[in-house]
User: Fold these one by one.
Assistant:
Number 1:
Amino acid sequence: MPVYNLKVNGQSHTVEADQDTPLLWVLRDHLDMVGTKFGCGIGQCGACTIHVDGSATRSCLLQVSMVEDMEITTIEGLSDDASHPVQQAWKEVDVPQCGYCQAGQMMSAAAFLSQNSNPNKSEIRDAMSGNICRCASYNRIEKAVEVAASKLS
C-alpha cells in the first residue's frame, strides 16, 4: 500500500492508504481528526470542507494521492484555542443547532473572509450557498460571517 506524506494543521504526517482513498477518510480514520464530517460523499453538502493551500475544498472529493506536499487545514487547525474570528463569531451569535455542518460552514467562511474581509450580505449569501444546514440556521450563519468580518477589519 502506498505511503503519503501529508502536512495537516502545520504538522507532518505519514499515512499508508490506497491512492484513491478520499482525504476525508484519511483525516478521520488515520489521523483521528474527526471535526471534518461526512455528509453526502459527493461534494454537495459542504460538511467535509477543509482548506487546501488556503482554499475551501471538499475533502470527500480529494484522493489522498492528490494532496501530498499541500497545506491542509482542518477545523482542528483553524486555531489552537478557538480564537479565530470565525470561531468567536459562531460562539457569539450562537449559530449551531445540531452542529453537524458547522465545521464545514466555518471553514468555508474563513476561506471566504481571507479573500473578502468586508463583504456585503449578498456576497456572504453567495459564498456560503454551497454549504447545507439541515437545521436551517442560515440567518445565524450569515450574521456570524458579518460579525467575523467586523473582527477582521
Number 2:
Amino acid sequence: MKLAWILWLASVLPPQTADSLCLTTTVYLEARDQSVRGQKAVAEVALRRRDSGLWGNTVCDVVTARKQFAPTLVSPSTRLSNTEAWAEAVTIALEAERNWALPPGQRKEIVPGASHFAAHAIASPTWRSAYQVATIGDHTFYKVQSLKPRRS
C-alpha cells in the first residue's frame, strides 16, 4: 500500500482509529528496522507531542506537521510493503496508545521528556546539541523543549 492512500484513509476514519493508523505508519516509516524498544520510543515522542498541542491536537496532525516525521519527509508514493514490519508497528502503536492513556505516573516511559529524535546517519538537525535522553539503535532521542500537556 502507498503512503498517500494510508494518509487519505486516515482522513476519513473516526479520529481515534485515524490516530492509531497514523501512529502505526510513523512507527513503520521511522523505525521498522529498529528494536521494539526503539519503535516504542518513536511512538512515545509522537504521543508526547500530541499531548502538548504544539504540533496539533491529534496524532495525525502531529506526524503530518511539516518536516517533523517521516509521513511528510518521504514521497507520498512510498510503498509500505513489509507486512511483518507493518504488523509489528500496529502492535507497538496500539500498545503505546494503551500505555499513554494511563495517568502520567503509571506510564512506562522509555525516553522520559524526549520531544525529538534523529537518525544521525540521514539527518543533522539544528537542535542536535540539545539534551540527549537516550540513544536506541540508530536513533538519538532529545529533550529539545519541555512539553507540558495542554490545559483542558
Number 3:
Amino acid sequence: MIVAFSVTPLGVGEDVGEYVADAVRVVRASGLPNRTDAMFTSIEGEWDEVLDVVKRAVAAVEQRAPRVSLVLKADIRPGVTDGLTSKVETVERHLTQ
C-alpha cells in the first residue's frame, strides 16, 4: 500500500518547515520506501507498518505544536510492490508516446 500524508502544525506561525522536517525525519528513519514533495510525503509498505510510521511522524510534530492537522490518502492494492516508482514510470511512459 502507498499512503500519502501531510502533517501541518497549527498555532506555531506561518513558517512550519522545521516542524514538517521533524515528521519527515521519522519517515526516512523508518527504512520504508518514501518520497517527499511540496505537498505530501508518500510511504510504501504494509498497512500496520505504514500507519505506525504516520502515527510516529504526527507524534514528532505534536511534541512542539499545540495542534496538528493530518491529511491522509491511501492506495490499498495487495500484492503490488514498488508502486512509488512504477506508477510514476507508467505516467512518464505515456507522456513520451
Number 4:
Amino acid sequence: MILVGAAADIPVGESVRVQGSVAIAVFNADGTFYAIDDTCTHQDASLSDGWLEDCAVECPLHAACFDLRTGKPSGPPARKPVRTHEVVVDDGQVYVRETIEVGADAGAEVAGVLGEGAR
C-alpha cells in the first residue's frame, strides 16, 4: 500500500498527488477519501489540480468531469474512464491500494476499485 499521509492534513475539498506505478490523485470529498489515476484520459492534465464538487472532479484543462467512485467521465471531451483505487484509513493515516489492471499480470488478483472512506 502507498502511504498518502495523515487524514487531518488533507482538508475537505482538497486533494494530494502520490506516486504509484503512475501518479495517483487522492481526494477528500466531504470526509470520504477517493483515489483515481491523476492524469486525464482526454489530454495530459493533472486531475489533482482540478475542481472537486461532490464526488466528481473537473479537469483543469478542458472541463472533462470524472466520477471519483467509478472513474467514469460524465461526457466529452473525455471518453475513457480513469482507474480508481481502494483507499484505506487506518489510525488516522490514509493509504492507497493501487488497482492492478486486468491482464497486467497473469493470475494477479484485481484490488478493490472503490474508494472506501474513513473506517
